[in-house]
């Protein structure tokens, strides 16, 4: 049997810096755990635009469809701000999500004990936090038509459309309920059914799927604005949160700060199962290309490393090896190693991006 295949799209800004550390970890698994991967690389985002005039070529798109999993760094940067909308770096990532039909975006927010004092919230509020945001990723206002900027009389109008079909809501709801069954058995669905028809439908469909297929899972509903408030007030009330594309984008960045830094949050974007029974999948940190710190060795590689741990778990059925990697991360944090985004406590040891990679590799080695 051939080795599992990985396509690495490191992207822009700190993307290549954090991905370099993940490459070393992938190699370690090949050598030390007898888990070789066939790794290929490609361009996405601004770097692809610079090379090919498009943020994602058809060849790279086709390759992403073939591999067992895609690992992505980050895309974007201020030098691309003035590009036409159709070739902006972010369009490359959105095309991958849409054409691979990666409708369920899993964004876990876990607070490692060693970082509980680092969160902007009190230790009590975040210590032991372990929630999962399931963000719908291929529809909603990100993709709805009509969209565009049109001339209306003597002024321009910017238009985007929030649109959800019942089947789009059903499938992401099922993903959330399935995850909840393997966790704390609770789902909270967030929308704005008080002002949006798409929210009314969302609530109705999630409730129906819950009642008919998952009566054993506790289901609640919240307006997304109240949900944002509750996420800051007492986040441990949640287990799985399921929400739409835009609300999920916002709520997951907010959840990142519960864990201490945006540099800590991984994600898995999953689609329908392929012939081999595994979901189509793309793994990426929640953070962006961080232009303010790019090229300085300051980026925290942990979000990207933990995204690879999610790949081990969800694409390669290596849950124990994913645990090993997550425990290695927990160990280096407990030892006080901190990249610049996590500095501030007394007694912490500052490390660079590659210094953090070295420490995680050493912890992996020590786990054998
Ligand atoms: P960002 O996530 O890049 O950065 C926000 C802040 O968090 C910055 O201060 C940054 O330094 C810090 N930060 C982020 N990741 C970090 C890490 N790993 N280690 C340490 N600090 C980290 O968001 P932004 O500044 O709003 O966006 C910059 C660019 O990235 C934009 O072009 C945006 O569209 C793009 N973006 C891409 C993705 C993605 O590729 N998935 C996600 C979000 C934003
Ligand atoms: C994210 C990002 C993306 C999004 C951008 C870069 C397209 O913010 O992955 O959270 O808005 O989905
Ligand atoms: Mn985002």
Automatic annotation (TrEMBL):
<comment type="subunit">
    <text>Homodimer.</text>
</comment>
<feature type="binding site">
    <location>
        <position position="249"/>
    </location>
    <ligand>
        <name>Mg(2+)</name>
    </ligand>
</feature>
<feature type="site" description="Important for catalysis">
    <location>
        <position position="142"/>
    </location>
</feature>
<comment type="pathway">
    <text>Amino-acid biosynthesis; L-leucine biosynthesis; L-leucine from 3-methyl-2-oxobutanoate: step 3/4.</text>
</comment>
<keyword id="KW-0963">Cytoplasm</keyword>
<keyword id="KW-0464">Manganese</keyword>
<keyword id="KW-0432">Leucine biosynthesis</keyword>
<keyword id="KW-0460">Magnesium</keyword>
<feature type="binding site">
    <location>
        <position position="225"/>
    </location>
    <ligand>
        <name>substrate</name>
    </ligand>
</feature>
<dbReference type="GO" id="GO:0009098">
    <property type="term" value="P:L-leucine biosynthetic process"/>
</dbReference>
<dbReference type="InterPro" id="IPR019818">
    <property type="entry name" value="IsoCit/isopropylmalate_DH_CS"/>
</dbReference>
<comment type="function">
    <text>Catalyzes the oxidation of 3-carboxy-2-hydroxy-4-methylpentanoate (3-isopropylmalate) to 3-carboxy-4-methyl-2-oxopentanoate. The product decarboxylates to 4-methyl-2 oxopentanoate.</text>
</comment>
<feature type="site" description="Important for catalysis">
    <location>
        <position position="192"/>
    </location>
</feature>
<dbReference type="GO" id="GO:0000287">
    <property type="term" value="F:magnesium ion binding"/>
</dbReference>
<keyword id="KW-0560">Oxidoreductase</keyword>
<keyword id="KW-0100">Branched-chain amino acid biosynthesis</keyword>
<comment type="similarity">
    <text>Belongs to the isocitrate and isopropylmalate dehydrogenases family. LeuB type 1 subfamily.</text>
</comment>
<dbReference type="GO" id="GO:0003862">
    <property type="term" value="F:3-isopropylmalate dehydrogenase activity"/>
</dbReference>
<dbReference type="GO" id="GO:0005829">
    <property type="term" value="C:cytosol"/>
</dbReference>
<keyword id="KW-0028">Amino-acid biosynthesis</keyword>
<keyword id="KW-0479">Metal-binding</keyword>
<dbReference type="InterPro" id="IPR004429">
    <property type="entry name" value="Isopropylmalate_DH"/>
</dbReference>
<dbReference type="Pfam" id="PF00180">
    <property type="entry name" value="Iso_dh"/>
</dbReference>
<feature type="binding site">
    <location>
        <position position="253"/>
    </location>
    <ligand>
        <name>Mg(2+)</name>
    </ligand>
</feature>
<feature type="binding site">
    <location>
        <position position="97"/>
    </location>
    <ligand>
        <name>substrate</name>
    </ligand>
</feature>
<feature type="domain" description="Isopropylmalate dehydrogenase-like">
    <location>
        <begin position="5"/>
        <end position="360"/>
    </location>
</feature>
<keyword id="KW-0520">NAD</keyword>
<dbReference type="InterPro" id="IPR024084">
    <property type="entry name" value="IsoPropMal-DH-like_dom"/>
</dbReference>
<feature type="binding site">
    <location>
        <position position="225"/>
    </location>
    <ligand>
        <name>Mg(2+)</name>
    </ligand>
</feature>
<feature type="binding site">
    <location>
        <begin position="288"/>
        <end position="300"/>
    </location>
    <ligand>
        <name>NAD(+)</name>
    </ligand>
</feature>
<feature type="binding site">
    <location>
        <position position="107"/>
    </location>
    <ligand>
        <name>substrate</name>
    </ligand>
</feature>
<dbReference type="GO" id="GO:0051287">
    <property type="term" value="F:NAD binding"/>
</dbReference>
<protein>
    <recommendedName>
        <fullName>3-isopropylmalate dehydrogenase</fullName>
        <ecNumber>1.1.1.85</ecNumber>
    </recommendedName>
</protein>
<feature type="binding site">
    <location>
        <begin position="77"/>
        <end position="90"/>
    </location>
    <ligand>
        <name>NAD(+)</name>
    </ligand>
</feature>
<feature type="binding site">
    <location>
        <position position="135"/>
    </location>
    <ligand>
        <name>substrate</name>
    </ligand>
</feature>
């Amino acid at each position: 049997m051939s080795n599992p295949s990985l396509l690495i799209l490191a992207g822009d800004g700190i993307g290549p810096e954090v991905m370099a550390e993940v490459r070393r970890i992938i190699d370690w698994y090949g050598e030390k755990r007898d888990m070789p991967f066939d790794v290929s690389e490609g361009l996405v985002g601004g770097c692809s635009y610079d090379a090919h005039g498009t943020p994602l070529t058809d060849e790279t798109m086709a390759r992403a469809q073939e591999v067992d999993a895609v690992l992505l760094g980050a895309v974007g940067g201020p030098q691309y701000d003035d590009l036409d909308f159709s070739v902006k770096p972010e369009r490359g990532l959105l095309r991958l999500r849409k054409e691979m039909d990666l409708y369920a975006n899993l964004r876990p927010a876990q607070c490692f004990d060693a970082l509980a004092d680092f969160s902007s919230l009190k230790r009590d509020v975040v210590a032991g936090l372990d929630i999962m945001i399931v963000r719908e990723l291929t529809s909603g206002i990100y993709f709805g038509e009509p969209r565009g900027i049109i001339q209306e009389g003597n002024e321009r109008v910017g238009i985007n459309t929030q649109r959800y079909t019942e089947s789009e809501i059903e499938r992401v709801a099922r993903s959330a309920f399935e995850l909840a069954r393997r966790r704390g058995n609770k789902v909270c669905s967030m929308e704005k059914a008080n002002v949006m028809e798409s929210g009314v439908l969302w609530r109705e469909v999630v409730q129906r799927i819950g009642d008919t297929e998952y009566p054993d899972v506790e289901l609640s509903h919240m307006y997304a604005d109240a949900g944002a408030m509750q996420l800051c007030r007492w986040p441990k009330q949640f287990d799985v949160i399921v929400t739409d594309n835009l609300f999920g984008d916002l709520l997951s960045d907010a959840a990142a700060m519960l864990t201490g830094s945006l540099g800590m949050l991984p994600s898995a974007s999953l689609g329908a199962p392929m012939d081999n029974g595994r979901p189509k999948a793309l793994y990426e940190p929640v953070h962006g290309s961080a232009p303010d710190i790019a090229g300085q060795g300051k980026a925290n590689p942990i979000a990207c490393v933990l995204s690879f741990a999610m790949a081990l778990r969800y694409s390669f059925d290596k849950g124990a090896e994913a645990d090993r990697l997550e425990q290695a991360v927990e160990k280096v944090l407990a030892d006080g190693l901190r990249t610049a985004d996590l500095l501030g406590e007394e007694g912490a040891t500052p490390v660079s991006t590659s210094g953090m990679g070295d420490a995680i590799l050493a912890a992996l080695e020590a786990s054998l």
